[in-house]
Specification:
3-stranded antiparallel beta sheet; Phosphorylase Kinase, domain 1; Transferase(Phosphotransferase), domain 1; about 400 residues; 15 strands; single chain; alpha+beta; 6-stranded antiparallel beta sheet; disordered C terminus
Length: about 400
C-alpha cells in the first residue's frame, strides 16, 4: 500500500546519491524520508536526509551517523534494513529498504481504535521487535504510532534517530536536554533519568493502550508529571495484565521485552477474519462500548521528537533472552497484521468509531484521571524509584 506517500515539495531534492526520489514518506525533527528508486535494480528504497538547517550542526550530524550504525545492528525482520549511508554535498543521507504498508498512526487516523484481534497482533509484533532491538544491545527511545509500520509481513519498528546503546543510556544529551516525544516517554526519562530498555516497555504499554482505546492511559504535560494507576477500563481484558505491568511507575517492576512477548504468545487470542473463502460469512466486528464524546475537536497530527529541559533530576535507575524468541513473536503476529492491511484495502462500511481522544501533540492531563493521580511539580520532589536492579527475575539491567 502507498497510502503514506505524498508528492515532493518544490524545495525537495529530486535525487540523492543516484537514487531518484519519487515522493515523501514523512518528516521528523531531524530529517525527511523519501521514497526512492535504486539506481541499479530500480526497486523501491527509503532515503532519509538530514534537514538543511541541521546539516552543519556537528551534534545532529553525529546523531544521523549513529542512526545508520545502530539500525544496522538490529535484525531486519523487525525494522528497515540499512542499505547504504554517506554524505552528498555536505548533507548526510541514509538508504534503507522501503517498508511498504501503513503507519499505525495513519491506521488509527483512518479507522479509529483497533479491534481486539488486530490489537493483539500489533502487541505481539511490536513486542517481538523490541525484543530484537534490546537483544542487539540498543534502546529505541522513540516508540510511538508514527514509528510502527503495519505491513503484510508483520510489524516493523522504524526511525532509530535518537536510539542509543544500553551502555549509553543517559536520558539527557550533552546539552542537558531530554530527547523524546512528549506523551510517549517513561516518567523516569521525562525527569532526566536514564533511558533503559524499561523505557521502551513503558512506551509499548502507552502504544497498545492508545491503539486499543483511542485514549492515553496516563495524563501529563511538560509542566507536571502525573503518575498513578493507568486507566485501562476500555482495553480488551486479555491484554490488561501485560499493559498494566508495562506501565509500572518503577522501571524495575516492568517486564523485559522477551518476558512480555512470552506472556502474549501464550495467552488465548481472538481470531481475525482474513477472508478469501467463498462460502464463509463475514465475521462480525467485536462489540466495543461507545466512546464518550470528546471535549474538543480531535487533532491527529503526528508528534515530533523533541529536545527539552527535564522536569527534575532523577536518581540513577536501572536481558533479553534471544532473537529466536523475537522471531517466534513476529511469526505469531504476521497473520493478524496481514488482516489489518487487507482490511484497509476493502470497503469501510463497517468503520469503527473514531477514538475519543487524539494522539497528543504535547502530553495533556487526562480529563478524568482514574483513581488518584499524584502530580509532581518540577523541583518539588523527585520520583521515588526502588534500587532493585538485578534483584528480580526478568527485570532490566543496564549494560
Amino acid at each position: 500500500m502507498d497510502g503514506d506517500i505524498r508528492p515532493l515539495d518544490p524545495a525537495d531534492p529530486r535525487q540523492v546519491a543516484g537514487h531518484t526520489l519519487l515522493g515523501r514518506l514523512g518528516s521528523g525533527g531531524m530529517g525527511t524520508v523519501y521514497l526512492g528508486a535504486d539506481p541499479v535494480s530500480g526497486g523501491r528504497v527509503a532515503v532519509k536526509t538530514i534537514h538543511p538547517h541541521l546539516a552543519g550542526d556537528p551534534v545532529y550530524r553525529r546523531r544521523f551517523k549513529d542512526e545508520a550504525y545502530l539500525a544496522s545492528r538490529v535484525a531486519s525482520f523487525c525494522t528497515a534494513r540499512v542499505l547504504a549511508h554517506g554524505e552528498e554535498n555536505g548533507r548526510p543521507y541514509l538508504v534503507t529498504d522501503y517498508v511498504g504498508g501503513i503507519s499505525l498512526h495513519n491506521r488509527l487516523v483512518a479507522d479509529g481504535p483497533l479491534p481486539p484481534a488486530d490489537l493483539h497482533g500489533v502487541a505481539v509484533g511490536v513486542a517481538s521487535a523490541l525484543a530484537a532491538i534490546h537483544a542487539a544491545g540498543l534502546v529505541h527511545r522513540d516508540l510511538k504510532p508514527a514509528n510502527v509500520m503495519l505491513t503484510l509481513s508483520g510489524c516493523r519498528v522504524i526511525d532509530f534517530g535518537i536510539a542509543s546503546g544500553q551502555d549509553d543510556a543517559d536520558g539527557a544529551d550533552a546539552s542537558g536536554k531530554v530527547l523524546g516525544t512528549p506523551g510517549w516517554m517513561a516518567p523516569e526519562v521525562l525527569v532526566g533519568g536514564p533511558a533503559t530498555p524499561a523505557a521502551d516497555i513503558f512506551a509499548w504499554g502507552c502504544l497498545i493502550a492508545h491503539a486499543g482505546t483511542g485514549q492515553m492511559p496516563i495524563g501529563g504535560d511538560p509542566a507536571t508529571l502525573r503518575t498513578g494507576d493507568p486507566d485501562l477500563s476500555r482495553l480488551p481484558e486479555p491484554l490488561v495484565p501485560a499493559v498494566r505491568s508495562a506501565l509500572a511507575a518503577d522501571p524495575a517492576d516492568r517486564p523485559t521485552a522477551s518476558d512480555l512477548l512470552l506472556a502474549l504468545v501464550e495467552q488465548p487470542q481472538p481470531q481475525p477474519h482474513v477472508g478469501g473463502w467463498p462460502d464463509a460469512d463475514p465475521a462480525p466486528r467485536p462489540h466495543r462500548p461507545d466512546a464518550p464524546a470528546p471535549s474538543g475537536r480531535p487533532s491527529w497530527e503526528e508528534t515530533d521528537t523533541k529536545a527539552f529541559t527535564p522536569l527534575g533530576v532523577a536518581d540513577a535507575l536501572s536481558s533479553t533472552r534471544t532473537r529466536l524468541l523475537a522471531g517466534i513473536g513476529a511469526a505469531a503476529g504476521t497473520i493478524v497484521i496481514g488482516a489489518v492491511i487487507a482490511g484497509l484495502t476493502q470497503g469501510k462500511s463497517d468503520t469503527p468509531p473514531a477514538p475519543s481522544t487524539p494522539v497528543p501533540s504535547t502530553p495533556t492531563a487526562s480529563a478524568t484521571p482514574p483513581k488518584r493521580a499524584t502530580v509532581i511539580k518540577p523541583g518539588t520532589q523527585k520520583p521515588k524509584h526502588k534500587p532493585r536492579h538485578g534483584k528480580h527475575k526478568g527485570k532490566h539491567k543496564r549494560g
